[in-house]
Amino acid sequence: MPAARAQEIADYVSFCPLDQARVAALRPHVEPHFGRVVDRFYDEILKRPAVRAALGDSPEVVVRLKTSLREWLRTFFTGPYDEDYWCRRRLIGEVHVRVGVEPRYTLAALEVVRQEIERAVIASGFPEPTEHLSSVCKLLALEAAVMLDSYSEAYSDQVRQLERSAVQERLTQSEHLARIGRLAASLAHEIKNPLAGISGAIQVIRDALRPDDPHRPVLVEILRQINRLDGTVKDLLVYARPKTPRIEVCEPERIIERVRAVLLREPDFQRIRLEHVAVGPPFTFRADEDQMEQLLLNLLLNAAHASPDGRAVRLVTSLSEREVRLVVEDQGHGMDEPTRQRAFEPFFTTKARGTGLGLSICQRIVESHGGTIAIQSQRDRGTTVTVRLPRHGPEEVETGQ
Ligand code: HEM
Ligand SMILES: Nc1ncnc2c1ncn2[C@@H]1O[C@H](COP(=O)(O)OP(=O)(O)OP(=O)(O)O)[C@@H](O)[C@H]1O
Ligand SMILES: [Mg+2]
Question: Which of 216, 240, 264 is where one domain is finished?
Answer without folding.
Answer: 240
